[in-house]
Amino acid sequence: MKLGVLFSGGKDSCYATYLAKKQGHEISCLISIFSENPESYMFHTPSISQVKAQAKAMNLPLIIQKTKGKKEAELADLKRAIEQAIKKYKIQGVVTGAIASNYQASRIEAICKKLKISCINPLWGKDELEYLNELIENKFKVIITGVFAYPLTKDWLGKEINKEFIEKAIDLNNKHKIHIAGEGGEFETLVINCLLFKKPLEIKSKKISGEGNAWRMEVKT
């Protein structure tokens, strides 16, 4: 099936792309939403501009749709982006990186139903510990680009998801109920290398902003 990927550049959309391709689907394009709202309910925002470099590394065309990021209204912008992918790349479905968020999954599925295309969720219901270990086993290099929950601090920015990270995440889950894969929005990520890339992204600069337990890292490659 020819598919477009709802792509943020984070671990979930990247790994979902990898799994969809492994299942035999043809990845025809990436679809990224650039939201002006850092508190968007739907879309990943830290270092979103790096999807351009990632698309180049994957040798895939990229559709970028801007949105004000207003709750529910941003879905109309998502629908426009998917319609563009259907028209330009003849996609028959979209891939999402949803794991457990009914809010995201239900809304994307509703759009796909209206457009009469399939919605593919390769990560849905996946055990989070198993998932993080799979990322490491399959050589996905993933860094933290945003933290948004106590007791996470800016010291977490730039950390790589590895065995040490998983141990710390499990401890945080036990003590503070932090979802170890960040599914509750506790942290955001950026994939800088994986099996889908022709070459890794090279980070040339970083800009950190925030306060308290809400910090973001914008990178340039």
Provide a brief overview of the structure:
By secondary structure, this protein is of the alpha/beta class. The protein has helices at residues 11-22, 51-58, 74-89, 102-115, 128-137, 163-176, and strands at 2-6, 26-35, 62-67, 93-95, 118-120, 141-147, 187-193, 205-211, 214-220.
User: What is the mean predicted local confidence, pLDDT?
Assistant: 94
Q: Briefly note the structural class of the backbone.
A: alpha/beta
Q: Strand percentage, roughly?
A: 15-25%
At the fold tier of CATH, the topology name of the largest domain is Rossmann fold
Label the overall shape. Answer: globular
Number of helices: 6
Integer-rounded radius of gyration: 16 Å
The number of distinct β-strands equals: 9
Largest sheet: 5 strands, parallel
Seen as an oligomer or otherwise, the chain set is: single chain
Order of helices and strands: EHEHEHEHEHEHEEE
Strands in their spatial order, largest beta sheet: 3-2-1-4-5
CATH superfamily of the largest domain: HUPs
End-to-end C-alpha gap: 32 Å
Helix share bin: 25-40%
The CATH architecture of the largest domain: 3-Layer(aba) Sandwich
Number of domains: 2
